[in-house]
Amino acid sequence: MLGAVSYTPESGEEVDVLFDANGAFGFAMPAADTDVSATLVDTRVRYLDKDGKEQSAVAREITALTPVTTSLTGWYYVKEDVTVSNRIEAGEGFNLILCDGATLYAKKGIHVPAGSSLTIYSQSAGTGALTIDGLSMEYYNVGIGGNEYENAGTITIVGGRITAKGSYYGTSLVGGAGIGGGGRGGSGGYITISGGTVTANGGENAAGIGGGHSSKGGTIKITGGTVEATGSFSAGIGGGDQGAGGIIVNSGGNLALEGGSITGNVGTWAAWMPAWAP
Question: What predicted TM-score, i.e. pTM, was given to this entire model?
Fold first, then answer.
C-alpha cells in the first residue's frame, strides 16, 4: 500500500491522490513531465486469533477524529489512548484490534444492532483495553450492543481488557446491559467470549451480560477468558428484570457472577435476581 506520495512538477501540473473505501490510495500520472516518487509502508497490524495464533490485517487507526457515527466495517485498531465522545456504530463485520498498552475510551459505548457484528482482538501481551463507563450514554442503551427496544447483533470477544457498563439512571428504573440488549424489550443477541478479561455491569434493572430491562438474555457462549458479570436486580449473565433468561454455554471460561445462578454446564438463567442474592 502507498504510504506517502511526493511530486516535482515541471509545468505546475499537480498530481491527484485518490483514496478508496479501504483507506488505500494511488495517483494518476499527469500528462506533463513530472517526477513522482512513492514510499511503500507496511500498514498491517498484528493480532491474536481465537486459537492464540498471531495474524495480521490491513487496518485503519481509530482516533478522536474518526467518523464513528457511520457504520464501521472492516479492520480498525487503537495504538494509543484515545477518547471517542460519540457512540460508535458497528456495521456488518467490524473488527477491532486493541494494541498492547492502548486504551479506547468509548464514552457512549459501541452500538451493535441486529444484522451487525463486532469482533474484538488483542495483541500478544493482551494489555489493550476498551473502557465504557456508562455515564454518558442515552437512556436504555447498552455498553456494547443494542439501543432501546433493539435486539443486539453478534458480539465476539477474542482478547483484550474489556470493561462495559450499561446506562444507569436512578429515576428511570430502566437500563441497558453491560454487553447485550437495550432496555424495554429486544434481546442480548449472540455473544461469544473466548479470551481476554471481561468485566460487565448492567445498568438499572439490567443484566451484566445479556438482556436490558424487560429484555431476553439471548444466546451467550463462554469458552475461555475471565468474565466478571454483575446484574442490577437481574442476572449477572442472562435476562434483565422481567426478561427471559436465554441460553448460556460455559465450556472453559473463568466466571465470577453477582446475581443469577446456573445449573449444569448448559442452562437457562434466572430472569430476575437481585445483585445481592447469593
Answer: 0.77
pLDDT tens digits, 221-256: 888 888 888 887 766 787 655 444 455 555 555 555
Residues 192 and 91 in one domain: yes
- Ranges 5-14, 105-114, 197-206, 226-235: which has the least confidence: 5-14
Reading the block at residue 144, the C-alpha cell is 456494547
Question: Is 97:78 a contact under the CB 8 Å cutoff?
Answer: yes
Of 44, 47, 46, the residue nearest 23 (C-alpha): 44
Same domain for 89 and 220? yes
Q: Which domain holds residue 243?
A: 44-267
Does residue 258 lie within any of the structural domains?
Answer: yes
Q: Please state the domain count of the chain.
A: 2
Give kind and range of the element (H or E) at residue 132.
Answer: strand 129-132
